[in-house]
Write a structure and sequence with these properties.
The chain has helices at 4-12, 39-51, 62-81, 96-111, 126-139, 159-162; strands at residues 20-21, 24-25, 117-121, 142-146, 167-170. It has 185 residues and is mostly helical.
Length: 185
């Protein structure tokens, strides 16, 4: 649990949170749609757009080469942070929705075959539900649905009955942006 001073210091990193709305300090809880950025990210973006903005390419002009160097350094940093085997495992997307679509079409296209099954939840966000349903339809794969309790918690007691030797994927929301529940990953 954070102390008030720690929360204040964290809050101070996000310029927009110093604003007032209807006479109250702004509280922003819609991060599933648009995440607010801390000052360090805003400053890094501004620096990039002011000095290095170009399509990354190692063999083109100076800005392109600088952009490519920054791009690769960022991949290396993220790879170390998530304990990836290397920076080549890091793929940039514009957000979670694009990432899920990419995985569903590429991994799903290569690994899902007729007769396989995938398990989704009744509480699945549409941005996860639709790509997996489409991948299942393309591969002639059965979609099985895990239910939730009245309070929105996953019915983990049903999971064993849904899992089979044909199960290739289980997808579920770690944190529900609707209910705020944290599912046990």
């Amino acid at each position: 649990m954070y102390r008030d001073s720690e929360l204040g210091a964290l809050r101070d990193q996000f310029p927009v949170l110093s604003e007032q709305v209807n006479g109250h300090r702004l509280v922003y809880l819609d991060s599933a749609a648009t995440t607010q950025r801390p000052r360090a990210v805003i400053d890094a973006l501004a620096k990039f757009y002011l000095h290095d903005n170009a399509n990354p390419a190692k063999s083109l002009h100076t800005l392109a080469r600088r952009s490519a160097t920054l791009y690769e350094k960022a991949r290396e940093t993220v790879a170390k942070f998530v304990h990836a085997r290397g920076p080549d495992e890091i793929v940039w997307t514009r957000g979670t929705t694009e990432a899920i679509n990419l995985v569903a079409s590429s991994w799903g296209g290569a690994n899902l075959h007729p007769g396989d099954e995938i398990i989704l939840t009744v509480s699945e966000h549409y941005s996860s539900l639709a790509p997996w349903q489409l991948a299942a339809q393309h591969a002639n794969v059965r979609v099985r649905i895990l239910d939730v309790e009245d309070d929105g918690r996953l019915r983990l007691d049903q999971l064993d009955a849904l899992l089979s030797g044909r199960t290739k994927l289980v997808a579920f929301p770690h944190v529900s942006n609707v209910l705020g529940l944290v599912n046990p990953v």
